[in-house]
Amino acid sequence: MRGILASSIGVACAAALALPLAVPQGARAAAPASVTDVAGPVPGSTQSLPLSPLASDRAADGAGTQGIARRDVLPFSLVGVVWDDPEAELHGRVQVRTRATGTTAWSDWQDVETHNHEHSADHGTPERTAGRLRGSTAPLWVGDSDGVEIRVEGEPAAPRLAEGSTDGSTDRSTDGSTDRPAGSAAPLPTGLRLELVDPGDDPPPQGPEADGPRATALTPESAASSAVNAELAPIGAPVISELTKQQTEADLVESRGIVQASTARPYIGPRPRIITRKGWGANEKLREKNFVYTKSVRAAFVHHSASGNNYRCAQSPSVLRSIYRYHVKSSGWRDFGYNFAVDKCGNIYEGRAGGVAKPVYGAHTLGFNSNSMGIAVLGTYSSSNPPRAAVNAVARLTAWKLGMYGINPRGKVIMKSGGSNLYKKGKKVRLNVISGHRDGFATECPGGRLYNKLGKARQSSARYQGR
């Protein structure tokens, strides 16, 4: 827990508990030296297939409709659609159906959340200006498949009448310029491609946690990703073990070299069990080499991954590896976008590399990635209730992580917008410390059913902190 920005933790102790030093906002920390280099194939793969115009009974001339007819492909488990311009929005409907591997059974049509650019790096940051970003839908987990069909239809345009017009035959803007016929489909972004992601095999079993991780050779990238958590777990560990509240408090005080009064305790929740990137099999060669940090962690934004609920918890590592590959290889991000992920069984996973106890700069909430962390609950919770275990995991995680920065989960925080479709750049916004994605950006995320549970998460998180 050393190595985070020095600041007052704001708890009732005999002396102030200073937070460990962090790299300044936007700075890149050099990766530690390698342990052992291991050559070998990169696990997982991505098939990228261009979409082309389709005929449709709803758009007979094919205008505004693109897709791929039913076809055989190499095995994959996750799908998404990307396009050239990250600032362009896809206004329309994306639907896919897939065939389970080794069968003749095709799924029903499934909707893919259009997502657009609400989950992404902030404007003006190197991650956004590097020229690699693409527009993208949310990823959809479909399970082991070897056949696919897709259609993307532009959203029908609402009629806009010219002044004095009554027939509605032409969509005309108020300045007199003709846009397109009323009711015609919205133009789709250019360069639409279907991304089919194979997560690769699960990492080999590591043995009982009590025995510690097996001695395995690490690539330089894996060693670097693990070393930033070295004060919490051995290098190469698949799991950071949980601590009791008393152990967490003692660890927090000891790590800062502060003599604490016997009656004073920091407001921090017990450290939860966290499955590391090594534990879920992240291929560290996919991401950018170095780590990027912000100044602090003053807020947590909760998301759903919008990847569907058709996964077993044993498949969560595969889901994560797929989303990670989709974020980096397909969408052009520098790493996995969220700082943490939670599955429907309540398991907590390390997300973007840089250290679970550190203020890692994410790409989860456009305009509000600075001084915050993003937590993605794996699944889609627009019309499905999030499992109690997942909501409780959000509470436990925030109680610990926010507690290291002296933040009350039930409180409010003033955040400065980096620019979103809700708040212009530079605007100061008062938000809940634990907010939903939709609080910073006009979006359905984290789904209405999960959003409605955030009040409970705030209360539980504060209770875990001892407030």
TrEMBL record:
Name of the protein this chain belongs to: Peptidoglycan recognition protein
Q: Where is this region: Disordered?
A: 44-66, 114-133, 155-226
Native organism: Streptomyces monticola
Similarity comment: Belongs to the N-acetylmuramoyl-L-alanine amidase 2 family.
Q: What is the lineage of its organism?
A: Bacteria, Bacillati, Actinomycetota, Actinomycetes, Kitasatosporales
Signal sequence bounds: 1-29
Which InterPro entries has this protein been placed in? Amidase/PGRP_sf, Amidase_domain, PGRP, PGRP_domain_met/bac
Keyword list, A-Z: Signal
Q: Name one Pfam family in it.
A: Amidase_2
Q: Does the keyword Cell division apply?
A: no
Question: Which spans does this entry mark as compositional bias, Basic and acidic residues?
Answer: 114-130, 169-178
**The N-acetylmuramoyl-L-alanine amidase domain covers which part of the protein?**
286-447
In this chain the Peptidoglycan recognition protein family domain maps to: 272-420
